[in-house]
Amino acid sequence: MEKKGLKMPSAFSILFIIIAILAVITHFIPSVESASFSQFIMAAPKGFVDAIDVCVFVLCIGGFLGVVAETGALDAGIAAIVKKMGGNELMLIPVLMLIFSLGGTSYGMCEETMAFYALIVGTMMVAGFDAMVGCATIMLGAGVGCLGSTVNPFAVGAAADALKGVGIKVNQSIVIGLGAVLWLSSLIIAIIFVMRYAKKVKSEGRTILSAAEKAASEAEYLSGKTSEDVNMTGSQKVALTLFGLSFVIMIMSLIPWGSFGINMPAATGTWLVGLPWGDWYFQELQAWFVVMAIIIAVVSRISERDFVKFFINGAADMMSVVLVIAVSRGISILMTETGLDMYVLNNAAKALEGVNTTVFTAGSYVVYIGLSFLIPSTSGLAAASMPTFGALTHKIGLSPEVMIMIYCSACGVVNLVTPTSAVVMGGTSLSKIEYPTWVKFALPLCGILIVANIIILSIAMMTL
To answer: Is 150 helix (H, G, I), strand (E, B) or coil?
Structure first.
């Protein structure tokens, strides 16, 4: 029986508390605009508007999953995967984390991972692990990929463009090479970390989840499911194939093919959404998953009335995630309106002038940790900070390319745990894990990654 006592507040309360604290802080800094009560009240609604594309995408994913769930194909597919692993379920972790990290390093796979939680968390739980293993496989996999971005247009691309705007040319070969080193080293560390925890869950029954979290995740992902239910009908096999195809197309459509010098033919997507692969984003994905939900319903002989019901019910299941995303985005809205983000940025840059290379590298990393909390958007942070930090780095004769990777890696680490990240709050909500539990799990890994990254970046800054 779970002990009664002081309970941690919900994700919503944590986010509103952060907004309130930041609003109060603005009243003690003369050079920023003091946040009014109305700004505090309107932060979340404005966050909803700012994140509307992501929010609708999540609702469409929910509707899509609601339809697929009713076919029974997803449950049967999960059971089939686990049975085929034949006791080697642990190997799912490195394979899946590598795949998600490839998405992170290439095109900044973040919010798009929301689509995978039902499948991956469910698979891991049927395999004998807990919801934390499934959540960590997705979030840490994609997260360390973003941390070591190589051609990610929303991170290194945005940073290089910001530096170009102040007359600093970036050597892309250095960025890609250093990004690959950070990506692979961080991925190895994260895989070992998750696998060690998964082994404890599987062999010893030890879990970091509370009794309430365990019950909630089991009710969501284990209700009526066993690894023996593998008899799929013909229509279920087709539905499962279409389910997998939906995500393959999603990934293909988001990869920035132009960065590799590849111009995708218009036939890859223009006929459907007006844009070829490589140019799709959330609006195009919303349409794609609605279309695929309809196709799966037709194949599975689901009536029009039932399709609408299943789609709406699936979208409804995602409303808590959508609201968390909206409120978390409200934090950055308040920071921007008051100028608190730029205040921190400018004062941090002044503090780093005149220090030696190692201290400058480590100090910049620490500063970007703070900035990443205040400005959770990677492209927004690059546009706001890189002209200042990149120019400062260039001015003292150091490598602006290394500064780009300092920004990417620090931002990547913070976005593994920060409550201002829609991915963290949404992913944990989908996994039925409380935010404080996730922080307790991931914080030791973040500490290891920070030390490893600073060592690599310090060496790079001294040699490049």
So the answer is: coil
